[in-house]
Design a protein that fits this description.
The protein is mainly alpha-helical. The protein is built from 2 helices and no strands. The protein has a domain of about 60 residues.
């Protein structure tokens, strides 16, 4: 007698592992890392704010401060690196 094949049902002898259909791509730690990176990005953009002048005919040298030229871009690069790490980090496999 021939076996009855049911579509979508795996037999016990199949070598493929069954995966959970509702499994998320990221783990909780991934979300915390990404959130920390977004926080660094927000901090970097906040550090860039200001330094302008209310009067367009008057120059304000504060626009060239070390905070806006060096610290803020480095903070932004760090934030982007942390977000990328949070995306690329593989979640722990549950056994």
């Amino acid at each position: 007698m021939a076996k009855k094949v049911v579509p979508g049902k795996k037999e016990s002898g199949d070598s493929q592992k069954e995966t959970a259909p509702n499994k998320l791509a990221f783990d909780k730690t991934n979300y915390y890392i990404i959130l920390g990176g977004v926080g660094l990005l927000v901090l970097g953009y906040i550090l860039m704010i200001g330094g302008g002048s209310d009067d367009p005919n008057q120059f304000n040298p504060e626009i060239f401060s070390a905070q806006r030229i060096t610290v803020a871009p480095v903070t932004l690069l760090l934030g982007f690196a942390v977000v990328l790490y949070g995306i690329m980090k593989s979640p722990k496999k549950a056994e």
